[in-house]
Amino acid sequence: MEVKETALKYEKKYTYADYESWDDGNRYELTDGKIHMMSPPSQKHQEISGELFVQFHNFLRGKACKVLAAPFAVRLNADKEDDTIFEPDLLVVCDKSKLDGKRCNGAPDLVIEILSPSTASRDRVTKFNKYLQAGVREYWIVDPESKTVSVHILENGKYVVQSYGDTGEITVSVLEGCIISAEDVFAE
Fold it and tell me: According to CATH, what is the number of the domain 40-185?
């Protein structure tokens, strides 16, 4: 793809159909039809993501809910404009009818975003609001630098936040009995 084509790509509004047609080897997200190119994650990001995946996967083994890791597309408004597609770091889906083998169509039950310098603002503001509007029942923002987890639980149309540090246990509200070890998540 030429530079001119790339510049034009960022000026237009896109839908999921456009997103599906891109095969240039890059990863993108769409927010209200606007494209965002994704950077490769850091080693620390991947270590945290891997540990969270293992803990959720072990808890969910044999249960109806599934944990999935990026890259895996979430079409937040698949039944409407279909112009917002995210690839959260981790997601938990309990309604298997939302999964079609390639993506999640609609709001997952739980979404986890791990901050990086290039995504922190989008994760804390843009995605926070989109996940809230879509009805994601629990949204985690994990900060590798401060070693904190902000857990946002949907109550009466708003997120109520609970904050956790790098020790102790994190109770998962949408998965009864699921406890995540913060110490293991942030282990060096």
Answer: 3.90.1570.10
